[in-house]
Amino acid sequence: MFGCGAIGLGVIQTSNLVKASRIIAIDTNPGKEAWAMKMGATEFVNPTKLPAGTKIQDYLIGITDGGLDYTFDCTGNVSRFPGPVLNFN
Predict the structure, then answer these.
(1) What is the distance between the alpha carbons of residues 38 and 54, in angstroms, rounded to a whole number?
(2) For the domain bounded by 6-86, which CATH number is listed?
């Protein structure tokens, strides 16, 4: 789940309600980690804190043994869409 603003937190809560087994919240603002976890995220990733040269897509594929079942872009940044979606095959 990309973006931990109001919409993103709602997506985290809903994912938790439908019993998603793993909810990975992704945001560049470290101050949003506590809120994401409080709403039900199981993990928080800050892409700016990844090792140099590591793309978020590659990192997520690595920690999920091949990729994610669903991704949600809740950043509101239309210039970035559909990057998160198209990079998971």
Answers:
(1) 27
(2) 3.40.50.720
